[in-house]
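Apologies for my clumsy wording, but could you write out the amino acids of a protein and the tokens describing how it folds?
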Amino acid sequence: MEASDVPEIDIDELERRRAGGAAVFDVREPDEYEEVRIPGAVLAPLASVPDAVEEFRAASQHTSVCVVCAMGGRSAQAVGFLVSQGVDAVNVAGGTNGWHQSGRPVESGPAPT
């Protein structure tokens, strides 16, 4: 899948979809996730995405899952793979950095258990 073929939304659309109950997956590394993240985002480092396809698929039963990284590159790779596996997923352009820089709320610290 070409990068231009990856379904993508911006952070304003992410905010709307989160309000509607869409799942958000963060494909950054654990240290990045602990530093700052979108509230409620589930950690799924990029290298683990192939092993977590069923988790993504289950979360996409009612609406597209939203996939973020720092700026959109790693999440675009993840979404390309997920879409090729039949998962309804969208990349978030601007990623966590864009979300944070826009003044929207963020969380930090260890992943919730």
About this structure: Residues 3-101 form a domain with the Oxidized Rhodanese; domain 1 fold (CATH 3.40.250.10). The helical segments are 11-19, 30-35, 53-59, 73-84, 95-101.
